Amino acid sequence: MQGRWLTGEKWGFPSYAMCRLCVAFVWLYHGLVPKLLGPHRDELVMNMALGLSEEQAIRLATAAGILEVLVGVSVLACWRQRWPLLLTAVAMPGLLVFVAVWVPDLLWGAFNPVTTNLCATALAIVALGQHNGRGRSGEVSQG
Prior knowledge:
Blueprint (H helix, E strand, L loop, with lengths): L1 H6 L6 H23 L4 H8 L5 H24 L5 H20 L10 H19 L12
Helix pairs in contact: 2-4, 2-6, 3-4, 5-6
């Protein structure tokens, strides 16, 4: 029985839950702390690299923060749905490319989007892999 919990054969098991909770945490934290509770200087630098004024950069950071919090909440609230994980698996690498193109200096920092975005992407992909083969009831389909 213990092996089933670790390999993800049931909904709510620790490995699926851990992946899903970590993905949600990344979205929630990065929406709240550097954007809504800040905004952090790096957020403004990224936004101003697009040619925005500081005021516009702050508004964009606020809007992005709200969207990120909504995605984080969706990862939790839509527990049995794939779309929040698919969105994460596509958006995180896309956001990383954005930073690499517009503000590549941020890739060299001690805490940077390379590690965060790639790990969040990997967790979403693992959760999606554990999600495959399950019907609406959450049971593993036969065949």
